[in-house]
Amino acid sequence: LDQQIVHYPSQIHHRVGRIPLGLKRKGLRIVVTGGAGFVGSHLVDRLIARGDSVIVIDNFFTGRKENLMHQFGNPRFELIRHDVVEPILLEVDQIYHLACPASPVHYKFNPIKTIISFLSLSPSSLTNVAGTLNMLGLAKRVGARFLLTSTSEVYGDPLQHPQKETYWGNVNPIGVRSCYDEGKRVAETLSMDYHRGAGIEVALDNKLHVRIARIFNTYGPRMCIDDGRVVSNFVAQALRKEPLTVYGDGKQTRSFQYVSDLVEGLMRLMEGDHVGPFNLGNPGEFTMLELAKVVQETIDPNAKIEFRPNTEDDPHKRKPDISRAKELLGWEPTVSLRKGLPLMVQDFRQRIFGEQKDTSF
Length: 361
Ligand code: NAD
Ligand code: UDP
Ligand code: UDP
Prior knowledge:
With 361 residues, the protein is of the alpha/beta class. It contains ten helices and 13 strands. It has helices spanning 38-50, 104-109, 111-116, 131-142, 178-196, 230-239, 259-271, 288-298, 323-329, 337-353; strands at residues 29-33, 53-58, 77-81, 94-97, 145-151, 210-215, 218-219, 244-247, 253-255, 257-258, 278-280, 285-287, 305-308. The strands form four sheets. It has a seven-stranded parallel β-sheet with strand order 3-2-1-4-5-6-11, with helices on both faces. Strands 7-10 form a two-stranded parallel ribbon. Pathway: Nucleotide-sugar biosynthesis; UDP-alpha-D-xylose biosynthesis; UDP-alpha-D-xylose from UDP-alpha-D-glucuronate: step 1/1. Catalyzes the NAD-dependent decarboxylation of UDP-glucuronic acid to UDP-xylose. Necessary for the biosynthesis of the core tetrasaccharide in glycosaminoglycan biosynthesis.
């Protein structure tokens, strides 16, 4: 297993020649940061299936080698254990920047590190460098196209419903979720500043090619079983015959997107001509009580519901307006919650009860 992991020097000592923007469709070299995670690993599978070569950068904070093991041995696949807050030197055509803990339980675990994943003091140069900045620096140096996976959390507890990309959001800057919300907002800012070419000479037309996706709640196979997010919690609880834990009164809403729809949206965004930001989410809106009901219908009609106090600053509602993605990317979700949930349940069942493993979702 360890033979698959290549350790790269974390500091850059010199710059190498720029690679022209990859225009041919086959055989691109693509970096996926956070590729051992839930969304990243599905994206990697699609890119490899398309014929591209993929380098995954991951520090395994929430990701797992198991998510990618079926790619080990493939000459077009490489896995690097590396923390994106450290610089890295690679030659690639495209960068999908996903690395970041996504579950509130995980990102609140080490909030300083979460925001540092986007912006930090570099131990080497004492300038504002890290995470997103490093990946933007890498993209700039080699003329690669850069895609940031931002989040619906940039809208905070939204006062506009559904949320359009033009909405600037309602985020508490000093709350417990801020490390994530504000971190992603800064990451968007950095991406746009690099795109606008703030004092930098880049690529052919002097602009860094940047893409921004604002992802709404996504679920599917390979989610961390105990990551604390609501769909993974409910599914694992129902399978283990434990009560479903509904936080607060359960009337808050979210819109749940199946992972294959998201991956399709990310790839269209990367290949398309528009910077964004684009909402990528399923407009089907559910209260947590309605979600619990769908989980009961799918797994166990007798599953009990247990109410727990809600977490601080929990957004009351969330639903994407996806008109922009429909019009400019020709994208919209195709998998409803009732269709997608059973696919995730099948995977969770196998992982929880140790039934025969199938990683080829
Ligand atoms: P995940 O936790 O499964 O994956 C994140 C991956 O990033 C993991 O493999 C983790 O080990 C890696 N990682 C974290 N910090 C790192 C670091 N400093 N250096 C290198 N690797 C690091 O989460 P996910 O659900 O797959 O989310 C992927 C991306 O999509 C994240 O950027 C997240 O913010 C965004 N997003 C996800 C959702 C969702 O519902 N899944 C919603 C909005 C946005
Ligand atoms: N960087 C990197 N890999 C590269 C090029 C840059 O990790 O191939 C990092 C670099 O260490 C820096 C950040 O990206 O911390 C921003 O780079 P940029 O060139 O934009 O800024 P500068 O180094 O000029 O401050
Ligand atoms: N939630 C819940 N039970 C759980 C976990 C979460 O009722 O076991 C609620 C949570 O309070 C929030 C919603 O589900 O209102 C979505 O939470 P999640 O952590 O999945 O995502 P996010 O808050 O980031 O949208």
